Amino acid sequence: MISFSGGVIKYYDKLFPEDYSTALNFINTNSSKFKSISLKYKHNPGFTTAIVFPEIMRYSVLQDFIETSALEIAYTNYGSGVADFSIGRFQMKPSFIESLEHEINKNDSLSAIFSEIIFKSHISELEKRKTRLQHLQTINWQIIYLNAFIAICDNRFKELDFESTTDKLLFYATAYNAGFYNKPNSIRIKATQAYFPYGPKYKGTQYVYGDIATYYYTKLNK
Questions:
Q1: What is the pTM of this model?
Q2: In terms of DSSP bridges, do strands 207-208 and 194-196 run parallel, antiparallel, or are they unpaired?
Q3: Could you give the domains of the chain?
Q4: Backbone φ, ψ for residue 160 (5° rounding)
């Protein structure tokens, strides 16, 4: 069998049984939040959850605590150029949220849809950074940011012709993990590269992030 990124299908629920099961439990526990927020923005809840499913799989409570407690003060005072770190189940970074805000701010349609993300002009940079950190520590806000990401991709890549929903998901999941600001060809290349769960510098056996997202989504829709 062929995977969505071109290799042999890996049965990720068997390769990572504990992490896969934990991720499923988290999504099931928060299914009403995923559904209500995603439908508010006219997005498929299953597609939405699939994008971040690999991140939920590799989430570490201990690592999250260590990173946020050690670096949140530095980020608040000096910004993402000094301290940029992953927060929460979706492993979003402050710089990622800043990029979302930038894209929304320059698009009138997105600004109207995601007005709650936009800061008032009188808000100081210090207060903005504090607010971002507060938002990133709640599941509701993480889901809102995730839906903003999808809407930005819909606008940014509207000229692309996807062969199927899973092809689109592979692309979006890769863009989420590797950077939506990359050019489409670069994202397509990254969609074939195996750097889950330890990142591109790790030399051992790894897997394709987008394949895990599409594997989950395919099982969800059987």
A1: 0.90
A2: antiparallel
A3: 12-220 (1.10.530)
A4: -75, 145
